[in-house]
C-alpha cells in the first residue's frame, strides 16, 4: 500500500538530520552520527580506505530480507548520504510503527560513505584517482575490495547503489529536470530483462508512483548501457536485484537539500514495499513508462544576443569547486550557438544586445548583475550597462 505524501512529509520533518546540509559532506561530518547510532545499532569498521580513512557499516534489523546500501562511492555525490542519515534517524525511533515493520522483516546493511577520501577532496575519484564505479572487476582499490567482500559475505536480496547526477539531465526530452532518476542495471551487453532486473524494476515502479505525487514528471530512467566494470552491472550479472539512485536537480536547489527530501521518500517507500511484499517482478512493465533521461539542460542560457554579427545563445554551466570548506559554483561558458532545443535552469533574454568581446567584458546580463566566468581559460565578467 502506497504511503501518504503527508505521512512521508511529516516523517522527513521529524527525522531530518539537521547537522548535515549542503553539498560538502565528508567523514568529519558523519563520524559523530555513526558513534551515536552505535548505541542502538550494530556499527562495524569494515576496513580502511586507500588513505587510511575508516569505512563503516551500520547494521539494523532482524528480518530475513537482506538489503545492502552504499552511498558516496563518488565523494562529490553527497545528497543520498544526507537522506540515508535521515532514514537511519527514523529507523532508530523504536516507537515508529513503520520502522518496526521494516526492521521485523528486513536486515539493512548500510555503508554511509564508501569513499571517504573522495568525499574529503570533493571528487568523483578516490585517493589514487580511481573511479570506484569502474573497479568492480579488477578491484585494485581497498574500497572496492571492502564492498565486494561484504556482498559475498551477506549475499543481499537487494542492493541500493546511491549516487548523484549533474544538472544537465532532464526527464525525457523535456524542460523538466530529472530531480530523481532510477535504474535497474543491465547484467549483460544485450541488456536482457532478467528476473533480477524485473524485481528491481518493480521496486522502482513503486517509488515512482509516490514521487509523481510531489514532483510530477520529474523522475527519469537512467541509461542502461552495460559496463561490467560498474558495480551495479556486476551485481545484476550475479543475479542480485540492484537499484541505482541518482539524486538530481530541483529548481534553485544547487545544495540539493530539496532533492534530499525526495530521496528520503524513495528510500522509505522502497524499503517498506520490500518489507511488506514477496516481490516477483511481475509488476515491472510500468518501469518503461518512466522517460529515459535526456541531456536538455544548462545551468544558465543567455538567449538572443549578437556575437560577431550572428544571432546566438550562450550556455553557461557551473563547475563545482571546493574552496575554504565549501562548494563554490563557478560559471563557465560551454557553448555559443542556437540553443532553441535546450533549456536553462535560469534563462536570461538578451533582446539582441550586442556582445563586445574585448578580453575584458561581455555586456549581456540584466542590470545590476555581475557574473564571472571563463571562456578559453580567460576570465571574463558579464555586466549589463544601460544602452
TrEMBL record:
<keyword id="KW-0121">Carboxypeptidase</keyword>
<keyword id="KW-0645">Protease</keyword>
<dbReference type="Pfam" id="PF00246">
    <property type="entry name" value="Peptidase_M14"/>
</dbReference>
<dbReference type="GO" id="GO:0008270">
    <property type="term" value="F:zinc ion binding"/>
</dbReference>
<dbReference type="GO" id="GO:0006508">
    <property type="term" value="P:proteolysis"/>
</dbReference>
<dbReference type="GO" id="GO:0004181">
    <property type="term" value="F:metallocarboxypeptidase activity"/>
</dbReference>
<keyword id="KW-0378">Hydrolase</keyword>
<protein>
    <submittedName>
        <fullName>Zinc carboxypeptidase</fullName>
    </submittedName>
</protein>
<dbReference type="InterPro" id="IPR000834">
    <property type="entry name" value="Peptidase_M14"/>
</dbReference>
<feature type="domain" description="Peptidase M14">
    <location>
        <begin position="35"/>
        <end position="135"/>
    </location>
</feature>
Amino acid at each position: 500500500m502506497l504511503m501518504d505524501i503527508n505521512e512521508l512529509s511529516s516523517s522527513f520533518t521529524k527525522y531530518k538530520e539537521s547537522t548535515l546540509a549542503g553539498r560538502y559532506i565528508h567523514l568529519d561530518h558523519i563520524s559523530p552520527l555513526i558513534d551515536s547510532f552505535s548505541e542502538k545499532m550494530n556499527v562495524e569498521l569494515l576496513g580502511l580506505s586507500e588513505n587510511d580513512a575508516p569505512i563503516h557499516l551500520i547494521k539494523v534489523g532482524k528480518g530475513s530480507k537482506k538489503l545492502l546500501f552504499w552511498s558516496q562511492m563518488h565523494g562529490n555525490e553527497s545528497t543520498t548520504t544526507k537522506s540515508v542519515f535521515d532514514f537511519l534517524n527514523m529507523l532508530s525511533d523504536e516507537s515508529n510503527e513503520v520502522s518496526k515493520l521494516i526492521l521485523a522483516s528486513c536486515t539493512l546493511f548500510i555503508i554511509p560513505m564508501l569513499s571517504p577520501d573522495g568525499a574529503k577532496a570533493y571528487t568523483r575519484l578516490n585517493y589514487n584517482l580511481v573511479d570506484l564505479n569502474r573497479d568492480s572487476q579488477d578491484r585494485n582499490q581497498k574500497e572496492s575490495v571492502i564492498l565486494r567482500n561484504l556482498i559475498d559475505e551477506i549475499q543481499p536480496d537487494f542492493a541500493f547503489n546511491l549516487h548523484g547526477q549533474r544538472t544537465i539531465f532532464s526527464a525525457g526530452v523535456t524542460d523538466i529536470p530529472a530531480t530523481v532518476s532510477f535504474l535497474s542495471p543491465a547484467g549483460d551487453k544485450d541488456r536482457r530483462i532478467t528476473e533480477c532486473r524485473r524485481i528491481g524494476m518493480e521496486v522502482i515502479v513503486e517509488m515512482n508512483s509516490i514521487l509523481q505525487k510531489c514532483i510530477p514528471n520529474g523522475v527519469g530512467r537512467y541509461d542502461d548501457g552495460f559496463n561490467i566494470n560498474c558495480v551495479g552491472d556486476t551485481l545484476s550479472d550475479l543475479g542480485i536485484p540492484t537499484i541505482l539512485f541518482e539524486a538530481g536537480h530541483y529548481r534553485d536547489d544547487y545544495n540539493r537539500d530539496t532533492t534530499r527530501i525526495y530521496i528520503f521518500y524513495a528510500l522509505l517507500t522502497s524499503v517498506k514495499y520490500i518489507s511488506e511484499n514477496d516481490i516477483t517482478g511481475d509488476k515491472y512493465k510500468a518501469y518503461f513508462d518512466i522517460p529515459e533521461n535526456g541531456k536538455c539542460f544548462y545551468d544558465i542560457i543567455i538567449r538572443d544576443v549578437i556575437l560577431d554579427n550572428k544571432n546566438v545563445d550562450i550556455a553557461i554551466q557551473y563547475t563545482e569547486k571546493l574552496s575554504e570548506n565549501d562548494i563554490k559554483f563557478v560559471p563557465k561558458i560551454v557553448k555559443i550557438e542556437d540553443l532553441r532545443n535546450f533549456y536553462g535552469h535560469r534563462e536570461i533574454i538578451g533582446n539582441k544586445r550586442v556582445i563586445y568581446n574585448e578580453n575584458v567584458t561581455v555586456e549581456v546580463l540584466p542590470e545590476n548583475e555581475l557574473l564571472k566566468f571563463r571562456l578559453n581559460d580567460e576570465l571574463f565578467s558579464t555586466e549589463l550597462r544601460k544602452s
